[in-house]
Design goal:
By secondary structure, the protein is α+β, with helices and mostly antiparallel strands. It has 15 helices and six strands. The protein folds into two domains: 132 residues, Orthogonal Bundle (DNA polymerase, domain 1); 187 residues, Orthogonal Bundle (hpI Integrase, Chain A), CATH 1.10.443.10. The N terminus is likely disordered. Strand 3 and strand 4 form a beta hairpin. Helix 3 runs parallel beside helix 5 and helix 6 crosses helix 10. The strands form two sheets. Strands 1-2-3-4 form a four-stranded mixed beta sheet. Strands 5-6 form a two-stranded antiparallel sheet. GO terms for molecular function: DNA binding. This is Putative phage integrase. InterPro entries: CB, DNA_brk_join_enz, Integrase-like_cat_sf, Integrase_catalytic, Integrase_recombinase_N, Phage_Integrase-like_Recomb. Pfam families: Phage_integrase (PF00589).
Length: 356
């Protein structure tokens, strides 16, 4: 373990992860300079803006802990990283903060691994100082994941009825809820949509309106995937009609699909919505519709989020499981089953089938 014996100045530590693309030499020909610039652009495209922000924040958190502990974050030292995740698990990594959850610690460790790799200092996560400590943290502190409540079709319809159909905001929110549910989309995928292909730098996908429905193309970590959203059985619950209506009254022809409504609800701005707006929308409409009225308001607010739409489709679509798996973009059927809140777990009874 490296101890510098002195406090490391904050100015010595980068506030955000540097680009791994090599910096061009001073005499680099112009055409290679262009390639270098493009390489940095591709590096940015390799991970989402949210991921990069989270990794930068975790590196800053680690660096601050190192300063307070009179340690240096560079070069990579597995023993220092092991002590850091121990501090995170025990609640001593930051003054006045509670212990981090196992999922947060694993994310922080992934961020450190990424940051060290970009600096040309790969760190071995299998090193005993890291792997053994992390295994102990998981065994001691791991808890079952808290799944968000699935929004079921009858609940979604009630939520839609709480929205004002005569306002731009109501039309937008209606389209967001319906396309999020019918597409099984993540909240970042909902707000990341553009009206057409390659219209914005921060877009995560685009849509095409066809006779039979919407074809949504999404960019992901493993490439592009297509999501087919068919038309509904009635205009009142049809995601395609909702999107078409929003576009028509919002009066824009390109750029982000879901934007801020300004001017006392009379104007549509150019800015893309933040993905947190999807979670707020689901919570607000679920509360207004009285969904899960058997629970307190605080409990209901905790149970619903943007993920509730995705889980709702998986739980309610009465089709072959492989179609749900494809719609959600899951690599395995096991992951899809985790989203199926109403799935009959005892549909196949092996106890009786064995003769008992």
């Amino acid at each position: 373990m490296k101890n510098s014996g002195e406090i490391v100045l904050e100015t010595e530590l980068p506030k955000a992860p540097p680009s791994p693309a090599p910096q061009p030499a001073s005499g680099l020909p112009g055409h290679l300079q262009d390639l270098s610039d493009r390489a940095r652009g591709y590096v940015e495209a390799a991970s989402s803006a949210n991921t990069r922000r989270a990794y930068a924040s975790d590196w800053k958190h680690f660096s601050a802990w190192c300063r307070r502990s009179n340690l240096t974050p560079l070069p990579a030292d597995p023993q220092i990283v092991g002590l850091y995740i121990t501090a995170c698990a025990s609640g001593t990594a930051e003054r006045g903060m509670k212990a981090n959850s196992v999922s947060t610690i694993e994310r922080r460790l992934s961020a450190l691994t990424w940051n060290y790799t970009q600096r040309g200092m790969p760190i071995d996560r299998k090193d005993r100082h890291i792997a053994t400590v992390l295994a102990g943290i998981r065994n001691t502190h791991a808890t079952p994941p808290r799944q968000k409540e699935a929004v079921l079709p009858e609940q979604l319809i009630a939520m839609l009825e709480t929205l004002d159909r005569g306002s731009l905001r109501g039309l937008r929110d209606r389209a967001m809820l319906l396309i999020g549910f019918a597409g099984g989309l993540r909240r970042s995928e909902i707000v990341g949509l553009d009206l057409g292909r390659d219209q914005t730098e921060d877009g995560r996908g685009w849509l095409e309106i066809l006779d039979k429905g919407l074809l949504v193309t999404l960019r992901g970590k493993t490439g592009r995937r297509e999501v087919e959203i068919g038309r509904g059985s009635s205009d009142a619950t049809c995601p395609v009609v909702a999107v078409e209506t929003w576009i028509r009254f919002a009066r824009f022809a390109k750029g982000p699909l879901f934007r801020r409504v300004t001017g006392e609800g009379k104007d549509v701005g150019p800015d893309r919505l933040n993905d947190r707006e999807v979670a707020r929308l689901v919570k607000k409409t679920a509360l207004a519709a009285g969904v899960r009225g058997d629970l307190s308001e605080a409990e209901r607010a905790e149970k619903f989020s943007g993920h509730s739409l995705r889980a709702g489709l998986a739980s309610s679509a009465e089709v072959d499981e492989r179609y749900v798996q494809k719609q959600l973009g899951h690599a395995s059927a096991e992951m899809t089953r985790k989203y199926q809140r109403r799935r009959d777990r005892f549909r196949v009874n092996l106890t009786k089938a064995s003769g008992l």
